[in-house]
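Researcher: Structure for this, please.
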Amino acid sequence: MHIVRSENRRAALAYDCISHGTLSPLLIGNLSSNLWSRPRRFVLCTLTSIICMYDIEYDCMKNTCEQRLKNMASFKKTNTKLFLKATPDLTIDNFFWKNHNASVVVKEFGPIDYIDFSPIEPYHFAVTCSCRIQIYNPITKLVTKNLNKFKEHAYGGTFRKDGRLICAGGKEHNVKLFDVATKSPLRIFNVHSAPVHRTFFTIDGTHIISFSDDKTTSLLDIPSEKKVVCFKEHNDYVRAGSVSPISSDIYISGGYDKIVNMYDTRTNKKVLSVNHDAPIESVIFLPSGGVFLSAGGTEIRVWDCFANGRLLAKISQHHKTITCLQIACNGRRILSGSLDKHVRIYDSGTYKTLHTFDYPNEILSIGISADDETLVTGMTNGMISIKQQDTKGKFVDYNKISFQYACDNLHLPNIDTHVHESAKEVMGKHDACLRKFQYSKALDHVMINYIVNKCPHITVALFQELVRRQGIVQALSGRDGKFLINILKFIIRNIGNIRFGRVLLEIANILMEIYDDKLEELNLEVQLTFRLLARKLEEEEDLIKYLTELQGTLEMILSSSETTIINTRSDDLTPSATAQKNLILNI
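Model: Predicted structure, token format:
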């Protein structure tokens, strides 16, 4: 009995080797020649395994060949999917934003008023809350600098483009400028009579724009520590502002009087004004500088600067007040935070919602790094949520007990295998006619009202198939006036569609070649329809010319926005006399 078990084990091993191709036909011949040698049972079992294996392979090959012959003999239906309207279910944004799952929550003192990222790597971010500005390292999530030279609440701390300076307002009615490295105040501007809620550097880095509750906005010169110009164009608190990304002379302000004003410091005048119809909490420019957004109430509005403040779009995806706006992905994405505890991400081209983040508390501020890897959200209860992209792959521990019997070259598939049941395909009437080479009848079936109005892609797909088969002339020849009117109206209605235009233009040319000599013999209604087609083609030609001119104009605008500001002034600043009173020395 022990010998039988051993021989059975050998036979199984031999079968395994043969199935993996490690036993050659020469070995099989040796096995058959030594059939009567010892141990006979092992040889018999091995030969039986070989026969079974090749029998199974023969059946598989037979089934495969039969299936291939069946597919070769079967009729290929008209491919209508080529002209279907594109409806992508999943985009790269779904995977990109869902990958921000490495979340860390930090507790601060008081509501988080403002969050701003340094433009320089490693992209530290400044959190303005209570009576301080704290600078965090996004990698360690720890505080690296603490700017606490405020007697009352601080507001709106922002970095300069080189990451070396920070400006901030506060309840003390002044604007302070800090050196990030030494934490020392370099300038203190006492130019307002009420709290200053927002401050921003101009793109040349030598001026600061401040927005205050005294209903004014001021342009401040850093080297001289003086006010350059002050605008008094609002009738209520000014709590929002933004600086143009392409010009150091243009900026906008938004107030609780529902008005957004644009200023030009070269003329010291207001150049544009739009009404948002709600108290404004945040405004921001797109990177092109020609479009800005305003947020107030439950609505975001998009305005065109070059068209005298024309309203481009309204975005209403929140059901409570929108408190903050940010730009991500080099201007291709817009982020908005609201008191409804949601952060929504929009496409800046279509203004459609791409993704939504949910938070446990009301949101006051959001910030995102220049590389889009770190998203920080500040809430009303003092919580800071730091989300980072999960760049680490999933680690598989092969030392676990479940892998103890696995071989070295074990491959684990990442995707489950789904076996779909084969269903009987129903052939359309037009495909049945094509199979019998009845091209005219096939065209009649796709020109019925339901298919023409509801499924025009089927009609266009048949047109393309008839052109490929060189049967389109046969299908269109000898038609009566009613059919010609229907097909001409179909072409006029759909030739402007980018999915159908190429095919329908070819069909229109073929129709003209067939009926050019017989046009006078047709009835008056058909002739008028042909003239409508000619007029439609002229309109499409004019539209293409107009779009080409528009493309050139847009390229000029985009190229002009790629300007570099040359700073001729020195970046080394020494604390002024006012700032030296609050000087901090690191010992």
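Researcher: Any notable elements?
Model: The chain has 13 helices and 28 strands. The mean pLDDT is 82.
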